[in-house]
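Blackboard transcription, Thursday session:
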Amino acid sequence: MSRQANPGAGNDRDLVREAQAGSERAFNELVLKYRKSVYLTAVGLVTDGDEAEDIAQDVFVKAYESLSLFRGESAVYTWLYRITVNLCLNRIRKRKVRSFLGLETIANTMAAPDTDEPAELQELNVRLRKAITELPEKQRIVFILRHFRELPHAEIAEIMDRDVGTIKANYFQAVQKLRKKLGPYVEGKE
Amino acid sequence: MEREDILNRVDEQEQWATRALSGVREDDLFATSKVTDSEFIVALRDRIGGRALAISRRVFPSFRVVSAVASACVILLVAIIAGPRFSRNSQPQDVNHLADVATMTTETVVDSLADANVDPTELAAYLDVPDYVEGDAADSAEDSPLTDQLLALDTGTLEEVLSNLEDTEFF
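(Written on the board underneath:)
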């Protein structure tokens, strides 16, 4: 699987230090490095491409504004994903309120991307996307961060401000649900 | 399922996910961004610049505002300090002339009042007092209401007020 995990975290702290000192070049480099993974994380959570674009912008605006507060205790990508998750949760909750008030209908607005994948794989993609969308928020976040971002449970726990046991339990339940829905489509791979 | 059992089976679930979804590409699963890197950076810079400007405008007023407020303060200060001096040091010629005119007017009026031939009615009209009737002066002392009379209560009126009070229902 080609996953946009996390770009090399090697010189991230240097980039942040330079950006804190006022280097626009360093901040731009950081943005370009993490832009795609932030976007993909957001789109998996909010299931809407346009909203994910907005959120990706918001993430880096917020990161810029709080650059001085970053002390380097966690990895730079952990910091960025934490901002991403929080902004996505805010967006999801606003959407729910608007839906409750009849101002908006919640729907899976994410269009299927055009791919040259075989039909069988496209079918799996459609079902997987639907199954991920139907996961409860926290399980969806944990699954995306674990499976697609390849973050260790401890870092996910830090991002979501939960203990590791809770994160593992969320992951277990998420995969169990996906397994139930996708079982017939992935037979032979198990 | 026990929590401990769940935690023990997490690895198994993970292995399933890795195998089952091995052919799935995230780019194919979720639509990729349509915005290019340079467009993203430009848009981001605009937003960051705009927010910095908005914040600075809230915290630091524009130069125009500052200079307007400063000018107003200076003018006010000058007016407070120089105001009394200005009134004292105004053109002496004008003040003296006005004083002369005022004096002349006053003298004319006073002189006319002192004139024995002035009709009391004219004086009364000038002083805006009630019509003056000859002979009233002698009776005026008796007609003017005395303090006791003013303070004396109209018994009839008091009784009427009391009976109204008794009839009134208070809640």
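Lecturer's comment: The first helix of chain A runs from residue 12 to 20.
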